[in-house]
Amino acid sequence: MSDILVTEQIAGREMDALQSAFNVVYEPELWKAPDRIKQILPEFCAIIVRNQTPVNADLIGAGRKLEVIGRAGVGLDNVDAKTASDAGIVVVYAPEQNSISVAELALGLMLSLAREIPAADRSTKGGAWDRKRFTGIELFGKTLGVVGLGRIGFLTAMRARAFGMNIIAHDTFVNPDSFMVNEPRAKLVSLEELYRESDFISSHVPETPQTINMFNDAAFAQMKRSAYFINTSRGKVVDEDALIRALRDKRIAGAALDVRAKEPPGGSPLNEMDNVILLPHIAAFTHEGQGRVVTSVCKDIAAVLKGEAAKNFFNFPRPKR
Question: Which residues are catalytic?
């Protein structure tokens, strides 16, 4: 019997250690063949995935010997954590390990929008030297609206504060007296006020029934015409058709998206807009961030299989089946 099935590209020193200590079947392209995963999963005590493998109820039901599911990432969008919990299977993930990487990218996108860096780069490489065309704006003195003041939203706010930005935030789960609010000197406001007052709006909310398409026509209509919208959270929180309309009608000044409702997204009018920056879901993809993610998940998988307690678990530290 094999111990661990790895269905996506997950590499690093801790993965090497896992392969030395356990019987690991490592097939980084296996996520493309869900039927085969279901066929072979009954042999394994653990499975490790990123975001391409749908660990749904059907797959979990096939894992008769599963003790632990590892998701090498911050969320559990592709893991049916409730079904796993009902089956007594530990679910481990990396809720904070790539937070710095995401926060730094959010700031990078703000700077890129403010100074039109991608467009200026393309223009200059094309032979132009158009300095006046690329007169941008400073972040200093501008207001950043952070939607979702969790770990990543907090780190983004702290970095924006270092640029001299004013921070307002909306998060219904954060205590106004908490460290997350006071350290960046943020002001908690309603969504409506955040939309009205922000020069930059950065989304850091999870994907839930309440947040899907929360950035819609009504939301963009309340924003300043000079505002920039940044999303490094989840693609489905943005109604892309509404965003396209807002950009075409010049209701907002620009946008930067690292995540999309469908990935890869295919053709879109967004691809042709000079005031839009599009990235292929790379916010967490730094060597340092990914190293921390892989280390955390691999150590927790090893701990559970050795009968020890996991540290970064979603449900419980030891299997209950």
Answer: 234, 263, 281
